[in-house]
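User: Quick sanity check before I run a bigger batch. Here is a single chain. Can you write out its predicted 3D structure?
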Amino acid sequence: MIVLLPLFDINLPANAMIFFRQLMSIAAFELFEIGEYNNSLLGLEATSPVNENYNAVGFESVYFINNMGTLFIFFLLYPIALLIEFILRKLAKRSFAVEKVHQSIKGKVYWSAIITLIFESYSMITICCLIHFEYMSFAGPGYVIQSLLAIFSFLALVWFPYHSTKMFIKNFKFLSYP
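Assistant: Done. Predicted structure follows.
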């Protein structure tokens, strides 16, 4: 949460803004810049940031995918991990070695990987969605894709705490008692 400090209306020296920008690139798992590639792939016009504070933190566009950066790629890879786990589950019935690999991956895919990713990036995804909602457009196919992904992501963010709580109460009975 400290990486989002420059979004508040406070005066920070330039060196502090540079520090927060570098810190945000680490917190957002920013491995490489995807904004220009995304704009050309989806046929989007380049946009300026909402204001200088947003730019300083790394929200350089009003587009959802551009602001998400490489974190978006991690979320795209998750269904592939689910598919691999599904295939290993089917193959595990035939081989003990595959069963061991499946058991090792199963916990990481369903618990460790996605929950850690969502918890670590929850506020960033929320801000990316809200920025996009302010400037949402359905003017062309690229804009429709951006907008639908932002809507879907926001709904998933709202659903995730509810579903997690429901699942914990169901599976851990001692949580349902006062």
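The two ends are 30 Å apart (CA to CA).

User: Great, the batch can go ahead then.
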